[in-house]
Amino acid sequence: MSPPDDFLKTIQRMSRKDLGQLNKSQYSRAERRMINDELVRRSDKRKADKSTSKTKSRHPETRSWSLYPELLGSVDNKLKKPFTFYNVDDGGLHSLKEYDTFVTGDFQCSKRCSSRGWSSGKIAISIRLYDEDQYNARIYHQRCRRCNAVRRPTLDAETYGERISALDGSNFGRQRYLLTDV
Predict the structure, then answer these.
(1) How far apart are CA 174 and CA 177, in angstroms?
(2) 95 and 41 in one domain?
(3) CA distance 61 to 79
(4) Is the full-model pTM beyond 0.85?
(5) 7, 96: one domain
(6) Could you give the CA distance from residue 129 to residue 135 in angstroms, rounded to a whole number?
(7) Could you tell me which residues belong to the region Disordered (predicted)?
(8) Which one of 40, 64, 145, 163 counts the least CB within 10 Å of its CB?
(9) From residue 96, how far is each of 27, 59, 173 by CA, in Å?
(10) Domain count, the chain
(11) How confident is the model at residue 181 (pLDDT cuts 50, 70, 90)?
């Protein structure tokens, strides 16, 4: 077995609590990604288990991130060369470079919640560059503080375009933050 396979088997045997308490700064980027992917996998499994139970969930479960191919137009006029949207999210496995940063936007909560919504200047985004001048950007959702439901943002096209325009710059792919799904 290769070392990544051994590491993956090790984290799969860990309890969810122990996995969440790991000091991720001590691990390589690939290992941090495996840890996050395992946490997300377990979270998705718990959500699936809840949805198949006989009791109805208080909140409809949603994915904790989205792709926004419809915002390609706000990007085109900011780039020096044309890029196309890579409409497959492979978790960055086939990407050439990756850049994690933030965008701004608004969130709307459900009509049943007492919160009407909120604005955020720090919506996490992972931008990935692929072969043949293709990119995609995973935009992470946020939870409502009142009802704890996960909500998809309405992005500010201007800041989204500015962040994606980093594809043309030499800084692209140098700055990294460890992101965890909500």
Answers:
(1) 10
(2) no
(3) 36
(4) no
(5) no
(6) 5
(7) 1-62
(8) 145
(9) 21, 37, 9
(10) 2
(11) very low
